[in-house]
Design goal:
Blueprint lengths: L1 E6 L5 E5 L3 E8 L3 E8 L6 H6 L2 E5 L2 E5 L13 E8 L3 E5 L4 E14 L5 E13 L5 E6 L2 E5 L5 E6 L2 E5 L5 E6 L3 E4 L5 E6 L2 E7 L4 E5 L4 E8 L4 E3 L10 E9 L4 E5 L4 H7 L4
Parallel strand pairs: 2-6, 2-8, 3-7, 3-9, 8-9, 9-10, 10-11, 10-12, 11-13, 12-14, 13-15, 14-16, 15-17, 16-18, 17-19, 18-22, 19-23, 20-22, 21-23
Antiparallel strand pairs: 1-4, 4-7, 5-6
Length: 275
């Protein structure tokens, strides 16, 4: 196992390139940034693996780069990377199959993985995450969130700002969207548990759509499905003036349902990130 320490309590910029294994980031009040690196269990040539990792810190910028990829990469056992850094730091992570787990409060997270999962607690400003087959989960996002997967699912407990999500076959679950949400899927289902303002723009091919609308909210609905059903639990007598929410949904064969937010509890439960 290798260990590094870099003093300083101000937020830093961290750049991580690790193909396989795991990346665990903890952003909290601290006066030192620590980096720990360990090879996977039963890994052969552990010392050689560790010696090929480059770790540097200069002027508030941390860089961790794993061994270079080769044609024999499939047999690479992976490394476990653990970083503790000041709250409010910004992180960019690139992996092939490594899972990325972030706890605490980051200002920005830019994470890209092929098959690894991306999990974050709180990102106060901008979140960008993309995976092929991995899932993306977040407890809370701030100003903006842009999430893309192919077959992975997207689960956001609370989107505090504008969010964009795009998947092919993965499902999208957003428990609460405080601003606008734009979601596009092919066959994935879309569920937004609670909205009171902004706009929801949802497009699917065969996926089903559920949008939960908060009570006593003026809402404009524009819904269309070629062969799927369209239902709404909203009372026609509810206020149509002072519209604060616009919901536009399009589907080819999927069903569209507009529900009271309290009736979308099951969707809200599904949207919580896994612990």
């Amino acid at each position: 196992m290798s260990h590094w320490e870099f003093p300083g309590s101000e937020p830093i910029d961290a750049f991580i390139d690790l193909a396989a294994g795991s990346v665990a980031l903890t952003a909290e009040a601290t006066d030192v940034t620590t980096v720990s690196l360990a090879p996977a269990r039963f890994a052969r040539n552990a010392d050689k693996l560790l010696s090929e990792v480059r770790v540097s810190f200069d002027n508030g910028r941390l860089e961790v780069a794993g061994p270079k990829r080769t044609g024999l990469w499939r047999g690479y056992p992976g490394l476990g990377l653990t970083i503790r850094l000041p709250r409010g730091s910004r992180c960019a992570v690139r992996t092939a199959s490594a899972d990325v787990t972030c706890t605490g409060e980051l200002a920005e997270l830019d994470a890209h993985s092929a098959s690894g999962d991306v999990t974050a607690a709180a990102v106060t400003r901008n979140l960008q995450a993309s995976t092929a087959s991995g899932d993306v989960r977040a407890e809370e996002t701030g100003a903006t969130a842009d999430v893309r997967t192919v077959s992975g699912d997207v689960r956001i407990a609370r989107a505090g700002g504008d969010i964009q999500a795009r998947t092919a076959s993965g499902d999208v679950n957003i428990a609460t969207a405080a601003s606008s949400a734009t979601v596009n899927t092919a066959s994935g289902d879309v569920r937004i548990g609670n909205m009171a303002s902004g706009s929801a723009n949802v497009n699917t091919a065969s996926g089903d759509v559920v949008v939960g609308v908060a009570r006593d909210v003026g809402v404009y609905l524009d819904l269309a499905s070629l062969s799927g059903s369209i239902t709404s639990q909203l009372d026609d007598a509810e206020p149509s003036e002072d519209i604060t929410l616009e919901v536009r949904c399009r589907s080819l064969s999927g069903d569209i349902r507009i529900a009271r937010a309290s009736s979308a509890g099951a969707d809200r439960r599904q949207a919580k990130p896994a612990s």
